[in-house]
Amino acid sequence: MIMPIDVTIRDLKRLIMLLTDLGETGKYVYRGYSKEEQLYPLLFRGQNDFRNKESEFIEDFDKYGSAYGKILNHIDLLSNAQHFGLPTRLLDFTHNPLTALFFATFTAKELEKPDDDKFYYIRYLDIAKNDKNDEKENCWLIDDLPIDYIVKDRFDKFETNLASLALKGIKCAERHYFQQMKKKLLLLNPKATNNRIMMQQGLFMLPYNLREINGSLRELEIVKEEHIRLIEEKTTLIRISAHLRDDICNFMDGFGINTYRLMPDLSNVCDALRKKHGS
Prior knowledge:
Layout: E1 7-9, H1 12-25, E2 28-33, H2 54-65, H3 74-83, E3 91-94, H4 97-104, E4 119-126, E5 139-142, H5 163-169, H6 175-181, E6 185-188, H7 195-200, E7 202-205, H8 217-234, E8 236-241, H9 245-254, H10 259-262, H11 266-276
Parallel strand pairs: 1-8, 5-6
Antiparallel strand pairs: 2-4, 3-7, 4-8, 6-7
């Protein structure tokens, strides 16, 4: 039985054994990341603060991007926008621990720099139990939203707090359920997925604490603190020595876990070939 406890790993064999054991349980989802700031959504990562542009991003993506994929509801729309680089409030997770490892180690670090350049990171979360009525559970996993949101003018009343949509989607509109929800991570499973999401076995965390979308920078810092605190409370951390990166990349490529498979379009294939051949 795997005990969820934070670990630091400096040996490739131990790392692969741990991820294999976790994957065999089928009860976890994972996020791999290179920098600690990548626990924040692109909407407010680093020096960015796109919160007051969120509805404009999504409205324009709905207008210009819908022709490139099957989009049925809010989850599909946001997940497609997220996967192709638009700043959204979503945070990528995956059902596959090796996919998480790939994205954690995707970018090389400057090892002579201190602290955040010493490690890559994977966080994992138990989703085997996600009872909406149990305050002790770590998350809620939502697969769909009601059919009445599949309308062409769905963003006329776009709500910055999408938690209300999720609540209706799982038929929990009572106020006390929302208070329980705030103590958990909310994970969304997109229905009409694109090739990237399918190959990456992706799903998304939806931060629902962006209450004041046009709030001050101080309010943004409070939101960030709440966001990180909740993730740290509900997930388990694996720190991976940055010195393992080359060995990890060689191992992963040998099993077909690479850019060609996980981001299957011509642009990424060409980028991968340039990197492979040193150009």
